[in-house]
Design brief:
The protein folds into two domains: about 160 residues, Rossmann fold, CATH 3.40.50.1970; about 190 residues, Dehydroquinate synthase-like - alpha domain (Dehydroquinate synthase-like, alpha domain), CATH 1.20.1090. It is about 45% helix and about 20% strand. The longest helix is centred in the middle third of the chain and has 21 residues. It is globular, with a radius of gyration of 20 Å. Bound molecules: nicotinamide-adenine-dinucleotide and zinc ion. Zinc ion binds next to helix 10.
Length: about 350
């Protein structure tokens, strides 16, 4: 699949092995940044990386910051290649966000190859070109747009993901199917058990359709000014859940919870039927099995405070995307704190039932 972007046209391909990394390591111009866990787990399949050209990241939110970016830049500037330096990164969304920032900043932009190692990064974040860093206690406050030149998806990586991280990735897959409407929901209702059981043939279809779906939005609106904002469905609430739980709820699982909160408001506003919301809840429930929710994460003031800290919230009322009548998506700037509190209480009630 090719993605057309203002920067370049870039490619996404599925691969059956990591031979491409070995080939890249033979060049003097490549520098590697890997998730430390992935490096340890896949050592046998990876080449011996040249001295001084490997940086390992402990993938934790507290390391997704400018200090890590600068440490990588410092090591990379020691290379002779300078502007021809080719960055190759392997990891999930955290490694992607950090290395995307390096790729866009160093020498005003260098060549970048990315191997997503989590389902979340493969089905969603690897395309679209966003890179974000946490700054001064705010999530994703620093950032830019800069896509990789090429993306290679190696599904074997998903075999070693914890159930928590595997299910988190499924949160985004479910979100894309829900946005797609009735057909998408029917499909995911039918296949969710197989995917939860790691049916990789089926999973590949879902990763492909998720990316194809996202492609339509980002090619129309690369810089998040128009239709791409609709992909933020479930994220206003999802981001708040991530932050209020101090990232104990991973991104995609928070999105699944956020979907339930958003749909509750859609039902209250008369946009969708209770039955439609319930069907989506059932699928979300299945992928949230391994997340134990703690009541204090959902305290009214904490959630509202977390939403208000989101950079996308610019007005007095809260902005969120909802499924509206005819199952299309719409952006609303008139959401009241009280509506959010009721929706969050609903999410806790059904998650604990
Ligand atoms: N740039 C974007 O467009 C975008 C979109 C969504 C999310 N994000 C960001 O992505 C981050 C979340 O990323 P994520 O959910 O992909 O995971 P992650 O990078 O947070 O990694 C989650 C865990 O999985 C481990 N891991 C990674 N690959 C593995 C593998 N193959 N086997 C075993 N363990 C593995 C990591 O070491 C880590 O412990 C958040 O910071 C979020 O803000 C960015
Ligand atoms: Zn997301």
């Amino acid at each position: 699949m090719d993605i057309v972007s203002r920067f370049k046209t870039y490619s996404v391909d599925f691969v059956d092995d990591l031979q491409g990394i070995a080939t890249l390591s033979a060049s003097d111009e490549t520098f590697f940044v890997l998730d430390r866990k992935v490096y340890d787990l896949y050592k046998k399949e990876l080449p011996a990386f040249p001295e001084g050209r490997l940086f390992l990241i402990n993938a934790a939110e507290e390391n997704k910051n400018i200090d890590t970016v600068l440490q990588i830049c410092e090591q990379m500037t020691n290379m002779a290649s300078k502007r021809n330096t080719h960055l190759v990164s392997v990891g999930g969304g955290i490694v992607q966000d950090i290395t995307g920032f390096v790729a866009t900043s160093l020498y005003r932009g260098i060549r970048w190859t990315f191997y997503p190692s989590t389902l979340l990064a493969a089905c969603d974040s690897c395309i679209g070109g966003k890179s974000s860093l946490n700054y001064k206690g705010f999530k994703n406050l620093l950032g830019s747009f800069y896509p990789p030149d090429e993306i290679f998806i190696y599904q074997n990586f998903f075999r070693t993901l914890s159930p928590r991280d595997y299910c988190s990735g499924l949160g985004e897959v479910v979100k894309f199917n829900v946005i797609a409407g009735e057909d998408g929901i029917e499909k995911i209702e039918r296949d969710i058990d197989a995917i939860l059981g790691h049916d990789y043939k089926k999973l590949q279809q879902y990763v492909e359709t998720s990316l194809a779906f996202k492609k339509k939005f980002i090619e129309k609106d690369e810089f998040d000014r128009g239709v791409r904002i609709l992909l933020n469905f479930a994220h206003t609430f999802g981001h708040a859940f991530e932050v209020s739980s101090n990232y104990a709820i991973p991104h995609g699982s928070a999105v699944a919870l956020g979907m339930m909160a958003a749909n509750y408001i859609s039902v209250q506003r008369g946009f969708i039927s209770e039955d439609y919301a319930l069907r989506i809840e059932k699928v979300c429930h299945k992928i949230l099995q391994n997340i134990e929710l703690q009541k204090e994460w959902f305290d009214d003031a904490t959630i509202i405070g977390a939403i208000r800290k989101d950079k996308k919230q610019t007005g007095k009322n809260i902005t969120a995307v909802f499924i509206q009548k005819e199952h299309t998506l719409g952006i609303y700037h008139d959401v009241k704190e009280q509506e959010v509190i009721q929706a969050v209480n609903h999410v806790i009630d059904i998650s604990q039932s």
